[in-house]
Specification:
Length: about 290
């Protein structure tokens, strides 16, 4: 079962979170029909969005968007504060082979930006961006947290893909120090993390998120929150109608003139919605 754990290193000012999102990433692979390199990039972005979501307050959402000049072009994942997550990949059919026996996500992403968009409720959105450092996502997300949010952070994200292209393990962890964290603890964690196994191999070994954190830090963890993670898209016909309204009167009149039922597909879950000419006319009347 997919799960996220948020906690503190006992008696130390270090915030930690870890997630196993294997089933969620596999579900997303099936929805988007991704090939291995795209699956790995998408899975890392999903795990990253879930880790960022562990810092949200009620009713908030966070989205990570990775945009590069490589063949993948754009990969997005969004999670709300309850860890309902959804994702979108612009170019799902990407497989670029291995580099040092690992999936070469960095080359598939290329150079570009990592954007983090926080929806803090009350119609407020905050977007911040950093240039991609490696395109491997975990280093880019750590760079974002260190530079843009000024929180010293270490991030590990990993996806292991089986021979049949299904997702066998996906998840990650995040470790964040605070201004009060003792320098001995920071040094200890830095040394420990250099020798630490990848998050996907920890999941393959059967470790749950709490055990991943204990393994990564070598220290006892005090759990603050333990939650389920699910792939869940909140799209609905109402939301589709609201999106159509934002196109403006002229566009809607054009659609009515064409005289056909229009089909709109959700980017995130591929669900299809239909709007008949009569429905378009009533939308136009309500504007
Ligand atoms: Zn949807």
């Amino acid at each position: 079962m997919d799960e996220i754990v948020k906690g503190l290193i006992k008696d130390e000012n270090v915030l930690v979170a870890a997630v196993n999102c294997t089933d969620t990433v596999e579900m997303s692979r099936k929805i988007h029909d991704t090939w291995p390199t795209a699956t790995a990039a998408m899975g890392r972005v999903i795990a990253g969005a879930l880790l960022l979501a562990s810092t949200l307050k009620e009713k908030q959402k966070v989205m990570i968007q990775v945009k590069g000049d490589g063949p993948l072009q754009e990969t997005v994942a969004e999670s709300d504060w309850l860890f309902n997550v959804r994702s979108y990949v612009k170019r799902p059919h990407i497989y670029m082979g291995l580099k040092d026996e690992k999936i070469d996500v960095g080359r598939a992403v290329g150079k570009g930006f990592l954007n983090v968009i926080r929806d803090l409720g009350l119609r407020e959105f905050y977007q911040s961006s950093v240039a991609l450092q490696t395109g491997e996502i975990a280093t880019d997300l750590a760079y974002y947290l260190n530079v843009s949010e000024q929180i010293p952070s270490a991030v590990s994200l990993g996806v292991y893909i089986d021979e049949d292209n299904s997702v066998k393990a996906a998840g990650g962890f995040m470790i964040q120090t605070m201004p009060q964290t003792k320098s001995e603890i920071i040094d200890f964690l830095e040394r420990k993390l250099q020798r630490c196994h990848s998050s996907s191999s920890m999941i393959l070994q059967g470790l749950d998120p709490l055990q991943m954190l204990e393994e990564a830090t070598g220290l006892p963890i005090e759990i603050l929150q333990r939650s389920k993670v699910v792939y869940n898209c909140p799209c609905s016909k109402d939301r589709v109608i609201r999106a159509v309204i934002t196109l403006g009167k002229y566009e809607i009149e054009e659609m009515i003139r064409e005289g056909k039922t229009i089909q709109i597909e959700c980017y995130f879950c591929k669900k299809k919605y239909e709007l008949t000419v009569d429905e378009l006319k009533s939308i136009l009347r309500d504007i």
